[in-house]
Specification:
Number of strands: 6
CATH superfamily: P-loop containing nucleotide triphosphate hydrolases
Structural class: alpha/beta
Distance between the termini: 60 Å
Bound molecules: adenosine-5'-diphosphate, magnesium ion
Number of helices: 12
């Protein structure tokens, strides 16, 4: 058997191993992305209400705001001023953009995964935890666009959640509030989530079909 054959067999075995590992992965934390590629449709409102409702029935919930720098979810959950203050004091590293950037694994190695994640999270009076949006999401979208490898470009948030958040066993549910457009951040959110929640306003036709 020549070296090339061995290499092909080895690569194929690694592929099968990775595939089997991916399929057998047991995920305790549920994830959902609140998404439709349109603004002003109630995504943030739905994410906040869904999150708070789930805490009221006993779930621990993490909301992640991928929707842009205006910080609507922080506003809805009463921590807007705290988040803005941290940003203006430059006490805003790491942040949500860091988790999808090249430096995340260095940060996690340096301070430990639990502490690195802890630094991202704001606790809120409504009981849900929040990783708020950050102005660096804008630059991150462009940076991700420069990554040629599609897997690498869109898999960053999923790797962060799988490898750094999931092992903490801290939340039952992770809800992603998404941008109202399809950009590189959006695709990271969709790849990371298992389910998508889409707020829609039903018209008369839809209403008549709702019991089908
Ligand atoms: N179910 C609803 N009924 C009426 N108004 C709503 C509802 N959900 C959201 N809104 C209002 O619609 C506007 C846009 O909601 P928002 O959640 O910010 O949308 P998106 O996140 O999709 O941009 C806000 O002013 C919000 O208060
Ligand atoms: Mg929104």
């Amino acid at each position: 058997m020549c070296l090339t054959h061995l290499y092909i067999i080895l690569t194929y075995r690694l592929y099968l191993y990775a595939k089997a590992k991916g399929e057998s992965k047991v995920t305790d934390t549920q994830r959902a992305a609140v998404f439709i590629d349109k603004g002003g449709t109630g995504k943030t409102t739905s994410a906040a209400h869904l999150g708070v409702a789930l805490t009221r029935v006993g779930s621990s919930v993490l909301l992640i705001d991928l929707a842009g720098k205006q910080g609507d979810l922080a506003d809805a959950l009463g921590v807007f001023d705290d988040v803005q203050q941290d940003i203006s004091n430059e006490d805003d590293f790491p942040n949500i953009a860091t988790t999808m950037g090249d430096r995340w694994s260095d940060v996690a190695k340096m301070v430990g995964t639990e502490e690195a994640v802890e630094r991202l999270v704001y606790e809120t009076d409504s009981g849900v935890d929040l990783i708020p949006a950050h102005p660096d999401l804008d630059g991150l979208d462009a940076d991700l666009g420069n990554i040629d490898d599609v897997q690498d470009r869109y898999n960053r948030l999923r790797v962060f959640l799988d490898d750094h958040v999931e092992p903490l066993d801290r939340w039952d549910m992770i809800i992603l509030d998404m941008p109202g457009l399809a950009n590189n951040i959006t695709y990271n959110g969709l790849w990371a989530a298992q389910d998508v929640v889409t707020p829609v306003s039903m018209g008369s036709f839809d209403s008549s079909k709702r019991d089908l």
